[in-house]
TrEMBL record:
InterPro entries: GH, GH39_cat, Glyco_hydro_39, Glycosyl_Hydrolase_39. Residues 1-24 form the signal peptide. GO terms for molecular function: hydrolase activity, hydrolyzing O-glycosyl compounds. It comes from Mucilaginibacter ginsenosidivorax. The keyword DNA-binding does not apply. Residues 100-527 form the Glycosyl hydrolases family 39 N-terminal catalytic domain. The active site is at E206. It comes from the Bacteria. This is Beta-xylosidase. GO terms for biological process: carbohydrate metabolic process. Keywords: Glycosidase, Hydrolase, Signal.
Length: 564
């Protein structure tokens, strides 16, 4: 064989390999949904959000985002924030906030000031939202280790720098109990008994790591006294915890089990009786992205495993099997305020990968709850917004400078899905066990769906997800719905990809301005809204079956809404 012939054969082989690759990418995925195959309620587990910095709540962009969250959900959105009892002047900063709710005079007498707490909760109530009210952190005057108290952490600093005097146990548990009593009593007087009865209260955050500088028994004692103050002010109030950080290496599940057993059979530190109030059980679950060969590689498996283990623990006690569960923080990774400049593995946050990850992971949360028969009430996306920070800095947030990011549009899609969830049969959807054990890193992308039906509509959320954030051409997806009412139906397709519902791509095309003009801001705001792909179309449903094919880019998400 001469050199010329060898090059020709090599070129032919290369073309064949490329052709095989394109065929594999273009192979049509199939999704089949039977409207009679109900699997459970399309409960709004997604309508829960949270963040570290409570003072953003009533600031300009914070109010704007909260209004968007309230508008997208048919049921009240729940908000969880840290630092509601932290001492300070109310200045907002990364991973910091304060309300100055509790101080003491020169004689050590408590002084209560509810102005900033009211500003936060007033904002929620006016928008029809519900506080998932966190009792924490420790006021400086009550802390056993009051100095240093205020931290000044910034991205790139040692994360351990944040754990200052607010993380310590109270020096006087009776004053701690009275603080909670006064807060709840004030809330009832301001918002009414019926309103406050509809809230869930929870104590602290991640006590199995450095957010709590005391022992496990000291945490149980602090919880018991908080519950005593709450119930003394409002006997019908609902409380729970322990909001542990997930992961076996952090001892989270061991802490969760010990906490449940204390609440069921332990001696109450505040009352001396057996047990402590427990109306909601909460724990956290996070993923673990990395940077591989210059691109982000997500890892959903640790998040799903922690959810599975938490569900199993709750289900293992007859007394708690039916208690509502809230995953108090449920995210692709751990630090919302760590931008991609300091943490390159967080570069997924601005674009569509955050959207497709959110769609694919929430679908699996429903499946995990179904498989273990637990009362799954909510999963808090620990993502909000950061005021006065660079545009698209790569924080884990839903909006930047009042401009909605692509991920927020997934929640707008969720808000349209009501009624009963439906069984999905998808040819390229990774099984739950595979996702939980190893993530989605196989040869094909995860093309899956979450489907629901109501009296006069059906909705199908479809995603094209893979752990590796690598661009690829769109893939055809054939969707078949059966047992539909015969007659005329209207189909609307919403889409999130690089051309639709994506303010980030528009911003980059502008040249990534850090000081966009008012006209550019208006354009970005429009690009941040959920957009349709084409116009609504009228279809004839024959013999109860409807079939349609869409093309979905990698990391894209679509919602098909069919009404009749």
């Amino acid at each position: 064989m001469n050199i010329k012939t060898g090059f020709a054969l090599l070129s032919l082989l290369t073309l064949l390999l490329k052709s095989q690759c394109i065929c594999a990418q273009q192979q049509t995925a199939t999704i089949n949904i039977d409207l009679n195959a109900e699997t459970g309620n399309m409960s709004p587990i997604w309508a829960w959000f949270g963040h570290d910095e409570p003072n953003y709540t009533y600031m300009k962009d914070g109010r704007k985002l909260l209004a968007h969250l309230a508008a997208l959900s048919p049921t009240p959105v729940h908000m969880r924030v840290h630092n509601l009892l932290t001492t300070g002047d109310g200045e907002a900063a990364l991973k910091w906030g304060s309300t100055n709710a509790y101080t003491e005079d020169a004689n050590g007498k408590p002084v209560y000031n509810w102005h900033l707490v009211d500003s936060i909760f007033d904002t929620y109530i006016k928008l029809g939202m519900k506080p998932y009210a966190q009792i924490g952190f420790m006021p400086q005057a009550l802390s056993t280790h009051p100095e240093p108290y205020r931290h000044h952490w910034k991205p790139g600093d040692d994360y351990n720098d944040i754990y200052t005097g607010w993380a310590y146990p109270p020096k006087d548990y009776n004053k701690w109990e009275e603080l909670v009593y006064q807060w709840v009593k004030h809330s009832v007087a301001r918002y009414g008994k019926k309103e406050v009865e509809s809230w869930y209260w929870e104590v602290w955050n991640e006590p199995n790591i450095s957010y709590w500088k005391g022992t496990m028994p000291e945490f149980f004692k602090m919880y018991d006294y908080a519950a005593q103050g709450l119930r003394r002010a409002l006997p019908t109030a609902k409380i729970g915890g322990p909001e542990i950080a997930g992961g076996s290496s952090q001892g989270g599940m061991r802490f969760l089990r010990a906490f449940i057993e204390h609440c069921l059979t332990g001696t109450n530190y505040a009352t001396g009786k057996t047990g402590s109030p427990l109306d909601v059980i909460s724990f956290h679950a996070k993923g673990q992205p990395t940077l591989v060969n210059g691109h982000v590689r997500m890892n959903m498996a640790p998040q799903m495993r922690d959810i599975r283990e938490g569900f199993k623990i709750v289900a293992s006690y007859p007394q708690t099997k039916n208690i509502p569960i809230v995953i108090g923080e449920s995210d692709p990774e751990g630090c919302a305020a760590c931008g991609m400049a300091t943490n390159p593995s967080n570069a997924y946050r601005n674009g569509t990968m955050y959207s497709s990850y959110t769609a694919a992971s929430f679908a699996r949360k429903y499946l995990l709850a179904d498989s273990l028969g637990v009362n799954f009430m909510g999963a808090v996306s620990w993502s909000f917004e950061f005021e006065n920070q660079p545009w698209f800095y790569g924080f884990r947030d839903l909006a930047t400078h009042g401009v909605d990011k692509p991920v927020l549009n997934v929640f707008r899609m969720f808000g349209m899905m009501q009624g009963k969830r439906l069984k999905v049969n998808a040819s390229q959807m990774y099984p739950l066990t595979a996702v939980t054990d190893s993530g989605m890193r196989g040869s094909h992308t995860d093309i899956g769906a979450l489907a629901a039906k109501d009296k006069k509509q059906a909705t199908v959320m479809v995603w094209n997800y893979h752990d590796d954030d690598v661009q690829a051409t769109g893939q055809p997806v054939n969707i078949t719905l059966s047992n539909l009412p015969t007659g005329t139906a209207t189909l609307v397709q919403y889409q999130i990809d690089n051309q639709h519902s994506n303010s980030y791509e528009v911003w980059k095309k502008m040249g990534s301005p850090q000081s966009p003009t008012p006209e550019q801001v208006k354009q970005l705001e429009q690009a941040g809204q959920l957009q349709t792909l084409g116009k609504p179309i009228k279809l004839q449903v024959k013999a109860g079956i409807l079939n349609t094919t869409i093309t979905l880019p990698r990391q894209g998400v679509a919602l098909l809404k069919l009404t009749w």
